[in-house]
Amino acid sequence: MRSRFRDDRGLTVRMGVTLFLLGLLYVGFVAALIVLLKSWVLVVVIVALLFGAQYWFSDRIALFAMRGRVVDRDDYPELHGVVDRLSVLADMPKPVVAVSSMDMPNAFATGRTPDKAVICVTTGLLRRLEPAELEGVLAHELSHVAHKDVAVVTIASFLGVVAGLLVRFAFYSQLFGGGRRDQNTVALLAIVMGVSAAVYTLSFLLVRALSRYRELAADRAAALLTGRPSELASALTKVTGDIARIPTQDLRTAQAFNAFYFTPAFGADPGLGRLFATHPSLEQRLDQLGRISAELGEAALPGNP
């Protein structure tokens, strides 16, 4: 099903390349584990179960982790109204609408297909944004669903999750079981941990590179669909500024889901974390929206001449 969101060839190519490279990495990773653990049945069953759980239940896991709940029209009529208008404008199925009780202003989309999509906003976002700004944010999230990059990021993140779990398993096996294991077992665990760490690092970098581009693609698609890039820019500026004032300790529980957020849960000074960021910088996003605004003949964005 095609929507009225403008196709982004660059995003499509990047998603294909990322999945291809991660597929090669995935095959090599599973093959290495089979050789090391000498049980292909065990490896395949475990990996298949983990992949199935993440693919089929990723939306529920994300909602549960972010304290989100599905809401009906009676509870949030204005929110449903905006999603209704955007879905009709984009010629897409209306996603399930959810609200998280978090005060941190943010939003995210999840779901493996457009028919199974969920868009969730926090109460902090609803409280801070004007209706036109909220429309820009929701159009951004809806474009993720239309471009199918939510499903791609979910799948692409899977290998890193498995590798990360194996690193922890191998580490704690050595830490707490070293006295009861022979040298061959310890060496095997060390190799598994090394291979898993390398796979985790490579998949982490590939997913981060894709994630930064997909956020720019979603900003661009949302601005063109609504015709009001200045409102999206205003929402970005407002949300980023408010998140920067939230204490770091309050942001840590949310940072695991940064790849899915409208704006990452970082404090005022992420430092070197920007090198591995899930999102482009605020300046990059505003610059792009400024160019789109000029193309559409819209008034200058806030903070731009």
From TrEMBL:
Comment on bound cofactor: Binds 1 zinc ion per subunit.
Names of the cofactor(s): Zn(2+)
Membrane topology qualifier: Multi-pass membrane protein
Binding residue positions for Zn(2+): 140, 144, 215
Localization of this protein: Cell membrane
GO molecular function: metallopeptidase activity
Sorted UniProt keywords: Cell membrane, Hydrolase, Membrane, Metal-binding, Metalloprotease, Protease, Transmembrane, Transmembrane helix, Zinc
Main EC class the enzyme belongs to: hydrolase
Active site feature: 141
Family statement drawn from the similarity comment of this UniProt entry: Belongs to the peptidase M48B family.
Descriptive protein name: Protease HtpX homolog
